[in-house]
Amino acid sequence: MAALIQGMPPTSPRPVAARRFLLPDVDLGSDSWLSRREKEMRRVDLGFSSGLLAEQVRVNAAYVREVARHRENVSLRFYDLPNVHRVIITDNVAYLTIYRHARGHPRSSRGGHRE
What residues contact 83, with CB distance under 8 A and at least 6 apart? Predict the structure, then answer.
């Protein structure tokens, strides 16, 4: 994540204009999507103790907030919606990971290289 946030990608001739991060809201309580997802994960992964997923989100949010204090082109927002996919886009590659319903781990991943 550091390379994405800190500056231009190593192969890019110019910096990226904006970096926007969207993370699950950890402060919504036991009825939030994140809490429901954590309960699902605990059923299939014995390492998922209560509060672990929320703590991982908090750590990532703290990192992004600290960088955003020093870089005006970094922003962070929170949501309470099911996470059905992940998109990562750089200057050279785009990845789409579609999460399948009720599975403990994403199984479909598609990547594309831009020339």
Answer: 24, 33, 37, 99
Q: What is the DSSP letter of 50?
A: T
24, amino acid identity: P
Kind of pairing between the strands at 74-79 and 19-24: parallel
Q: Which residues of 20-29 are buried (b: 16+ CB within 10 A; e: fewer)?
A: ebebbbbeee
Residues of the chain with pLDDT under 50: 8, 102-115
- CB–CB of 91/35 below 8 Å? no
Q: What is the pLDDT of residue 104?
A: 44
pTM, two decimals, is 0.63
